[in-house]
Amino acid sequence: MHRSDRTRRASAALVLLALPCAVLRAQDGGDPPPPPPPPGSKAAADAAPSLVPSKWLVLPDPETAPRRPIRTDVVFARHLHARDAAPPAAGETVTGETGTPVAWEEMSADATGMFSPTGKRWACAEIRSPADQLARMDVRGAATVWVNGDARPGDVYGLGTGGFPVLLRAGVNRVYLSGLRGKVLFSVTPCAEGVEIGAEDVTCPDAVRGEPLEGWASVVVRNVSAKTVANVRLAVAGESGGENSDPFTLPPLAQTKRRVRIRAPAADAATDRISVPLVLTVDGAVAARHPIQLDVRAASGARRVTRRSDIDGSVQEWALLPVDERLAAKGPPSLVLSLHGAGVDCLGQARSYSARPDFAVACPTNRRPFGFDWQDWGRADGYETLADALRVTGIDPRRVHLTGHSMGGHGTWHFLAHDPDRFLTAVPSAGWESFDGYGNPRPRTALSKWWFGGDGGSDTLSMIRNLVQAPVFVIHGTADDNVPKSQADRMVDALTAAGAPPVTVWQEGGGHWWDDPSTPGADCVNLESAFDHFRSVTPGPAPLSLEWMIFDPAMDSRHHWLRVEQVVRYGSPATVRAAFDPSRRRAEVTTDNVRWLAVSSPDGKPLREIAVDGRQFAASREPAWFMRGDDGWLEVSGTPPAAQKSAARSGPMKRAFDRRFVLVLPTQGTPEENAEAWSRARFDAMQWWYRGNGAVTVAWDGVVTGAPREFAGRNLILYGNADTNAAWAQVVGPSSPVRVARGAVTVRDDSARVGGGTERTFRGDALAAFFVRPRADDPDALVGVLGDTGVRGARLGNLHGLFISGAGWPDYTVWSDATLTRGDDAVLAAGFFDARWETDGSGFLAK
Predict the structure, then answer these.
(1) Distance CA 349, CA 406 (A)
(2) pLDDT of 269-288, one tens digit each?
(3) Could you give the CA distance from residue 801 to residue 32 in angstroms, rounded to a whole number?
(4) Which element (helix H / strand E) includes 78?
(5) DSSP string covering 439-505, please?
(6) Max CA separation in the chain (angstroms)
(7) What pTM was computed for the model?
(8) pLDDT at 586 over 90
């Protein structure tokens, strides 16, 4: 796979528990000992003995572990669900979902902390610390790191993100690693106390030679201390005021990705790199300095561009190969949106193309090189990049083509399937079809309807009626041993059977990434015949006949002259067919599973008549809006009321992580309950950082309720329950069909509403409930609840797959700790709210 010469890293704000930091003690010797170094000083850190374990226990995977929201995990059940659980012993066996007993085995690490647990899923070791001490832990080759029961994301993909701060306790500290991938490199290094700028994870733009630079960058800022540090500012040295003047607070042992506005004068021909000095201050005093380096690129070459994301306010990058104005243009320029493969950097993707006079190429990041498989927030990143690329280049937004390689080939199918009128053409190269058709298929259980309904966008083959609407050009090597050609064959056969056979290029003997070094660019993505295919399709008038399949209005609510704001049954696909008769100025529409619909004129001239599922209406406004009522279709004045679902404000659960979302922590629980919520939020924030180059705001419940303007319009993610989180009553409100309290979860069935409907209450302290609702105190935003009935329920949330692509969550899910051994059989409730945010009896409710 093609990789760039430079890799950028990112981080998210997180909150860690404040614990006392003890003095590092000097070792006794024969002579009188020297005075001990100051606590937390570099000298104290340097004097500490090695903390890297040399002995590990490793375990093969006892579970099947495919992509799903709730999974079995017998190791977690036995050793991590309770913080004081006993560790495993060599030879001890466990039996999980596979049904095959597996045993813990001893394994040694070398002097660098590296070991090779081939075929293993888990590892366990202990760290013996002579005293309480600050340290930085960095673990490559593991998805999750558990330190004394607290979870953090490991560097499973080897991105080099720099690790995370921890406070080790005097004595034994238990460490578990899960999700092992290849070789594991484990390091833990005592570190000095202080606030620092992290050099491992920088997101910044490139400068263009001869042009002044103004843009966004972001760097990691760490608080390596056990106390809260307030009034922190990050700025360019020598500047004051402006966008970089807002202070922020770093909780104990926290790290955050902080954005900074940067400017630089035009670089001359002799300059290849520009240094921008950053300064970190606390109460106006300098705490740290660090320069970031900007590469200088030629105006005609590929370069990085940065922008701020509406999802979380973070700084994200994308790469641009501009139109080559040195060559004679062959027509109006077009934009190609190119999606990279797994592990590929966006600049490397852009450099795989040769410059052309009639095309610019924009390459988003998927938010990280592995990211979200171009689904969920990866898809959103693609669309944010598309909007920014159109702004930067000034290209006609109607002249956009789509392509991608490998994982990006899947992204090409995925984008086109859910937005067929956005792209003129599509060129998937070495692309795979779906999670269920490539690799390990997701399990089929009695609850698959709800899991797949929360992730319906994954099944591109089921959206074939949309895929036939744009000319497709398929590229694949016949000897591809990564994504077999059979993946392309399935899509080609389906398109052909649907009456839209694509153009195909089968590269005989070509592997996954193939190229002729004598030609510019990489042939598997840069074929001139593919660009001729792009040139062959130009913007035209809206079609007069439409067939549109829509799985989720929040993904795509508009198709040419149609718009869908609500469906009847969420989690199930909807279909609209429409035909326009220009001579009669009449549109005829038939629907399936559509509740709220708008019809516009295809040619801009007024309509006279509209028929919706056989009911006739005189066209009185543009667009004309219709709602399906109990007695059929009614004409209405506009979009759904704010209290109902809409394309902009809807589930499923993952949708809550948008609109600059805020993690809201409880303060009204017991110390143990509050601490567990803080641990969970830290892990979630760090997962978001690692997987999505994200930046998360973390706030306490009283701060949110006391500053309504600051949090207006933002989605809130609440931890705890109605008894522990003081924001619950204001944000969730009394109307929610799912209620979570200490010791109980209640689910109301609104379909049998007589005196408030029927209710079912589940009791215990080991229950978890995730659900999404409209914020009761805001007309635009959502609240996502990561609820629990107690500490044991809260710890179940450490296993969620919310940030895993292909793992679908419906609007609400309730489960118990019995899922750790019984899986879906122990789920208590799951389903989708209807258009009114009520339960309609279609969900699952355990008896």
Answers:
(1) 12
(2) 999 999 999 999 999 999 99
(3) 55
(4) helix 74-79
(5) SSPPPP-TTHHHHHHTTGGG-GGGGHHHHTTS-BEEEEETT-SSS-HHHHHHHHHHHHHTT-PPEEE
(6) 104
(7) 0.93
(8) yes
